Amino acid sequence: MNKPNKVIPCPNGHGETRATKAKKTMTFRGVDITYQTEHYLCPVCGIEVGSIEQASITQRAISDAYRKTVGLLTSEEIREGRKRLDLTQDDLAQHMCVGIASIKRWEGGIIQTKSMDHALRRALQGQAANDGYSGNRKFSIPRLRLILREFEASLQRKIMKDDKGLYSAKYVWYADMVAYRELGQSMSGATYACLPFGPQLNNYRDLIDEIKKTDANSAEPLTSEEKKIISRIALRFPKDQMVIDASHREVIVQRKPIGSIIPYSDAAELTGL
Ligand SMILES: [Zn+2]
Q1: Could you tell me which residue, 184 or 82, shows the higher pLDDT?
Q2: Of 53, 76, 159, 180, which has the highest C-beta tally within 10 A?
């Protein structure tokens, strides 16, 4: 790839080092992999030094070698697939109902989960995210924020403050599921996964910052039916712990393996509301 032309001197005082390519092997996440590195080598003492840029290239080479070995799309495959469809990172994020941060991370060398890999392959084959996972609505982060704001008005307290685990997502989950069941369309278009602590926005870690930054006023306003659903949920679960406990008890959550997506069609079996 791009060869840095800055010469790094040997830290042991032997003068200039030489740019070198090497094949290396290692065990990564329990898998034996072979990858290519670029670094500078001192011909006198044999020490290897690298620039920060080379270090990040090496990180990605390790990640890609691992992904290739276990059958996940590599950074390059994701980027090329996206370009082939003439999609920006933001377009692809929209198609997949994930935040743009996820796309950037995967293309940058962070390893996607198996289920996200499956979603990536679908999206890169030109298929939009399954409607069953977005509840017949295009995913909207501003609308997610608007829903949270409506909950805060109903509950008369802040629910997003320092919410690193995004526990307030349980409220939105109920809002989305009940709206789908009763109105035929989710409110936010978000996709939810079963996590050890109950239903959660898929890839929520990447979404938290985007939710906090977004402008709720740019979202499609909530209808009166949607507002009624939100106030019903707020009335039923006035405390965070109540909505957390209720969502854990839902059969549609209990029966699913950890990490799997909760389809909106399961909304028919909700018991908490
Ligand atoms: Zn040296």
Answers
A1: 82
A2: 180
